[in-house]
Amino acid sequence: MRSWTFSIKTFLPLFANLDGYLLFRPSLIAGASSGIGAETARVLAMRGVHVIMGVRNMSAGSDVKDAIVKEIPSAKVDVMELDLSSFESVRKFASEYNSSGRPLNLLINNAGISGTPFKLSKDNIELHFATNHLGHFLLTNLLLDRMKKTACESKREGRIVNVSSEAHYLFQYPGGIRFDRINDQSGYSKFTAYGQSKLANVLHANELARRLKEEGVDITANSLHPGAIVTNICRHYFGIFNGLLRKVGKLVFKGVEQGAATTCYVALHPKVEGVTGEYFKDCNIGQAGEKGRDAELAKKLWDFSMDMIK
User: Which residues form the signal peptide (predicted)?
Assistant: First the structure.
């Protein structure tokens, strides 16, 4: 695939004359109240996609919606409450969405936390793993029948996109996933806990892609690295130095507009049609780390995750 310059100004022309291809693709973005998720919502809405924003903070989500509609009066944007750290919230969201009868063509699993001290979720699971992986895993499972129905009735490929990170191989526990020690505080590192959850995003997409392909369903599943970006997700990492990091980050890191480019590309572009089980970076197919390419580890994580969400 061709490599693109990483600016939303040069990214948007990729979709010139593709409006007919992009219409009637209702899209859910999990985690869209700030950062990459908010920018992804803006770009999708700009291209005529009906965007449903799943957000924990309804006030922040409404602000993003208002900003999008102000810029794009014709935008179709809805905001629904969704806390990925809570199984109850995920189930409530999925139940409301499914009972609404709305179609669903694109699912972008973007929500996430990073760098928090050791903490358990409401379901007593380490917070990074609960929010960044299990919440998305459960959400995807609960919405999958809706996506299958939409793909069948619309005759259009569905796409599931997991926003991961290079942290999936840069920060690893031995073995990749601490299956028997998910909630063990000993040896806990906020960096490695984040890396573990991002590895789970890659493995989840890969195993889901394998299962959907085996089933003959017209839905793809891919993961991606958006790039090194300073967003609200970094707020727990550097404490009093966050302000300085943001100033320096503007010089050396991607902005959210550039960071959202790969997500939008994988979610929308016809050049990615039929591509599944891949790891993208910089609007190209890349290569996940060694653990991220481990098919047996992906199957083990799938079974483990199914047990965790029961």
Answer: none
Catalytic position from the list 169, 188, 237, 279 = 188
CA torsion sign for 99, 101, 102, 103 is: positive
Residue 3 covered by a domain: no
Q: Is 188 a catalytic residue?
A: yes
Q: What's the number of domains the chain is made of?
A: 1
In a domain, 1, yes or no: no
What is the DSSP secondary structure assignment for residue 118, as one 8-state letter? S
- Collect all residues with Cβ–Cβ distance below 8 Å to 153 and sequence separation of at least 6: 103
pLDDT range class, residue 11, cuts 50, 70, 90: low
Q: What percent of the chain has pLDDT over 70?
A: 84
Q: Considering the domain boundaries, does residue 110 fall inside one?
A: yes
- Has residue 2 been placed in a domain? no
Cα 189 to Cα 106, 165, 184, 194: the distances in Å are 33, 17, 11, 8
Residue 204: domain span: 8-308
